[in-house]
TrEMBL record:
<protein>
    <recommendedName>
        <fullName>PRELI/MSF1 domain-containing protein</fullName>
    </recommendedName>
</protein>
<dbReference type="GO" id="GO:2001247">
    <property type="term" value="P:positive regulation of phosphatidylcholine biosynthetic process"/>
</dbReference>
<dbReference type="GO" id="GO:0120010">
    <property type="term" value="P:intermembrane phospholipid transfer"/>
</dbReference>
<feature type="domain" description="PRELI/MSF1">
    <location>
        <begin position="1"/>
        <end position="173"/>
    </location>
</feature>
<dbReference type="GO" id="GO:0032048">
    <property type="term" value="P:cardiolipin metabolic process"/>
</dbReference>
<dbReference type="GO" id="GO:0005758">
    <property type="term" value="C:mitochondrial intermembrane space"/>
</dbReference>
<dbReference type="GO" id="GO:0005743">
    <property type="term" value="C:mitochondrial inner membrane"/>
</dbReference>
<dbReference type="GO" id="GO:1990050">
    <property type="term" value="F:phosphatidic acid transfer activity"/>
</dbReference>
<dbReference type="Pfam" id="PF04707">
    <property type="entry name" value="PRELI"/>
</dbReference>
<dbReference type="InterPro" id="IPR006797">
    <property type="entry name" value="PRELI/MSF1_dom"/>
</dbReference>
<dbReference type="InterPro" id="IPR037365">
    <property type="entry name" value="Slowmo/Ups"/>
</dbReference>
Length: 180
């Protein structure tokens, strides 16, 4: 069985603010589990003019107790993130996936950011949970665990991005006041 989690959200910020905050979202007080973020590729697509980035993120966290019997007490996870920004259409797509523990569970997140008619930013996310463990009913239990944790994780992610957007606006306002 593969489980999907779908979510939609709107930020009362313009696309430029949301994308700038997204690119600079770590560190923030809602993401203390993120240990490091490294950009490993950054380029402009010659055909579309899109900005394309690949990042490597190291996060801490714990797997559920029922799985530690198989893998031990794993506390770190490596995540790959791909980002594509089209400034003409004011859209950003992101894709994240864990690079380790893939035999246990693969979590893939597909997210699309776009400007709405009010000039704010809409977000649509789909997260896919799939486990490679087919023994003792653990596959369904692990996928369900990932699915249930997603709502909590998404809430923290949204709050963290809002925190960074507020800081972006504060810095922008301070800069404008200096220029006046």
């Amino acid at each position: 069985m593969v489980l999907w989690f779908n979510s939609g959200h709107s930020y009362d910020y313009d696309f430029a603010t949301v994308t700038l905050a997204y690119m600079n979202r770590y560190p923030n007080p809602y993401a203390t589990h993120v240990q490091s973020v490294d950009t490993i590729d950054c380029r402009i697509d010659a055909t579309t003019g899109d900005l394309m980035l690949t990042k490597l993120i190291v996060k801490t966290g714990r797997l559920p107790k029922f799985i530690t019997y198989f893998v031990g007490d794993v506390t770190k996870s490596w995540v790959m993130e791909k980002i594509r920004i089209n400034r003409d259409t004011q859209t950003m797509t992101t894709y994240t996936r864990n690079l380790d523990h893939k035999k246990i569970i693969i979590i893939e997140e597909f997210t699309h950011y776009s400007t709405n008619a009010d000039g704010f930013t809409d977000v649509q996310s789909s997260v896919k949970f799939s486990s490679g463990i087919n023994k003792f009913g653990i596959k369904n239990k692990l996928e369900s665990w990932g699915h249930s944790k997603m709502q909590e994780n998404l809430r923290g992610s949204r709050e963290g991005l809002k925190f960074v957007m507020l800081k972006v606006n504060e810095r922008r306002q301070a800069w404008l006041e200096q220029m006046a």
